[in-house]
Amino acid sequence: MSEATLSQAVYRNVFLILTLLLTLTVGAAFLPMGGGPALAVAGAIAMTKALLVVLYFMHVRVGSRLVQVFIIVSILWLLLLVGLTMNDYMTRTWDVHGTTWPPIPVQLEDTPSSPTQEPERTTGAH
Amino acid sequence: MSKIGQSDGGHAGGHAMLEEQFDSMRQQRETGVLGMWTFLATEVLLFGGLFTCYGAYRFTYPEAFHAASGHLYMILGTVNTLILLGSSWMVALAVHAAERGEAREIIRWLLVAIGLGTVFLVIKGMEYALEYHEHLVPWLDFQFEEAHEKPAKMFFVSYFFMTGAHALHMIIGLSVLGVIAWKAHRGRYSVEYHVPVEIAGLYWHFVDIVWIFLFPALYLINPKWP
To answer: What distance, in Å, lies between the first and last C-alpha atoms of chain A?
Structure first.
């Protein structure tokens, strides 16, 4: 059987790099970055860790081309799911109906808000 | 009519474990591996849906998610991440042993991986118990500072669904690894035939990857030393 294999040393090194990345991501979480940069750093480190696991532990680096295509396609599906949903949520302040979105968190509980009380949340494009 | 399957040399000196629909052990192995990746693609969408829900609420209620995340036990989450990464390493070594036909090595590494996975679940269970006592479980006497109560509840709904779905996958994965170790003990695997070991390994690594994303998403928004 022509199965390309990796050596035990490769697996050990990958584990050590994963441990290092874990330390980095925990350390970075304590840095006084804003929400955006912190999310970007944590996301980038998580994707690097996942990539290492996929390429080495899951043998994709030495695996068949067809498996690589399947993985890329499943990532595209995921991007469609997350990307298009977030595209909706992140642009909902363009309010064509005159109601407010996102709802103001502190008003969730008590006061029943009417759209006319929060003119600053609507762009009034109509 | 041509009989494609029978014209192939694969069956002639065929392996006992070669199923009749395949021409060769190599084709059987590649089909099994590709089938597992196809299943994992559906799993990506399952967890992708949970992450999408989480992402939409985190974007809408950033302050509440910041406050709620600070209540998680970051140290326990970090230890669990390390344990899970270690178990993935052990499974990689088990698959490596399977490629060489070393049954005893398969069993040894799998048992270490099963041990680590069990420790992960025990720690996760301890976390759940602590969170229950701190009134952080939605619908079970959930209490949170008033300004963020409803969206913080949504954070914990996400937290329990995501980590719960992950823990369920861990339990399934541990069972699969146990069966594989038992079959290795019975001498079922060889250099020519070990695709079940490989496929079980893929599943375990996938569960590891899910946690790699869950950990920063839930624990590292507002980490605190205990």
So the answer is: 68
Assess contact for A26 and B222: CB atoms under 8 A. Answer: no
Single-letter amino acid code for the residue at B73: Y
Count of CB pairs separated by less than 8 Å, A with B: 146
Residue A31: is it exposed, middle or buried by C-beta count within 10 angstroms (0-12/13-18/19+)?
Answer: exposed
B95, pLDDT greater than 90? yes
The 8-class DSSP code of residue A93 comes to: T
Supply φ then ψ for residue B71, to 5 degrees: -85, -10
Identify the pLDDT of residue B16.
83
pTM of the model: 0.84
Mean pLDDT of chain A: 79
Rounded to an integer, what distance in angstroms lies between the CA atom of residue A11 and that of residue A14? 5
Q: Among A99-103, A105-109, B27-31, which stretch is predicted with the lowest mean pLDDT?
A: A105-109
Mean pLDDT on B213-224: 93
CB atoms within 10 A of CB A118: 14
Which of A55, A48, A62 is CA-nearest to residue A18?
Answer: A48
CB contact under 8 A, A5 and B147: no
Between positions 90 and 119 of A, the ones with CB within 8 A of B are 90, 102-103, 105-106, 108-109
Q: Please state the ipTM of this predicted complex.
A: 0.88
Estimate to the nearest angstrom the gap between the alpha carbon of B101 and the chain centroid: 25
CA angle A57, A63, A66 (to 5 degrees): 125
* Better pLDDT: B216 or B16: B216
All residues of chain A having their beta carbon less than 8 Å from the beta carbon of residue B75 are none
